[in-house]
Specification:
single chain; alpha/beta; Rossmann fold; five-stranded parallel β-sheet; 6 helices; 5 strands
């Protein structure tokens, strides 16, 4: 199975990438793990027309190939002004159900403070209607991110109770995602083999 990790910080060398690196190392049960760091890629601001995805400098075709091949996603966004990243929302509007539908996604919010719940709520409310991604019930909020998940084991925070707790919680969430990955892969095959009559008219959520 294939796992795609989407990180949506608009800053290069961000704390979000640190979280990605830890989760990629901790994830098990996947033959291939791909990291799409949106700030390193070229995506036009989508205007609702398919042609806009294919601008001369756009990386959309490469990105969409990974989306199609994925069996599961980890979607990681920093909290900016209580919202998910604009880069992430732009990408999710571009995604189509035929490529991402009925694939599980673990939502992760990253914040250098004690908030972080608003991006999760925003994504659960309005980010998956048309692309039909399936956000699993569990999610992660990585608070005070500068103080945890650091590779330097000599760091004073490396073995704190909170750091140990979030590492264990990440492990649990990744375990859950992997089980959803396997189950929904079977579901997608059944939906393809047993389509509903005229189901194409329901390509968008209600």
């Amino acid at each position: 199975m294939n796992l795609v990790i989407i990180s949506a910080s608009q800053r290069k060398q961000s704390q979000t990438v640190k979280v990605v690196q830890y989760m990629a190392e901790a994830a098990i049960g996947y033959e291939n793990i791909v990291h799409l760091e949106l700030c390193q890629l070229q995506l036009p601001l989508w205007d609702g027309e398919q042609v806009s995805k294919l601008a001369a400098s756009s990386d959309w075709l490469m990105i969409n190939k990974h989306l199609q091949e994925a069996d599961a996603f980890i979607v990681i966004t920093p909290e900016w002004s209580g919202m998910a990243s604009p880069l992430l929302k732009n990408l999710l509007m571009m995604c189509e159900a035929e490529d991402t539908g009925h694939k599980p996604a673990l939502l992760v919010s990253v914040v250098n403070g004690i908030s972080g719940a608003y991006p999760i709520a925003e994504l659960r409310m309005n980010a998956f209607k048309n692309n039909k991604l399936v956000a699993i019930p569990d999610h992660l909020i990585i608070r005070n991110v500068e103080e945890i998940l650091n590779a330097d084991k000599k760091s004073t925070s490396a073995f704190t109770e909170r750091d140990a707790h979030i590492r264990h919680r990440i492990g649990y969430s990744l375990h859950t995602l992997q089980k959803y990955s396997s189950a929904l892969k079977t579901l997608r095959a059944e939906l393809i083999n047993q389509p509903y009559e005229n189901e194409a008219q329901y390509s968008y959520g209600m």
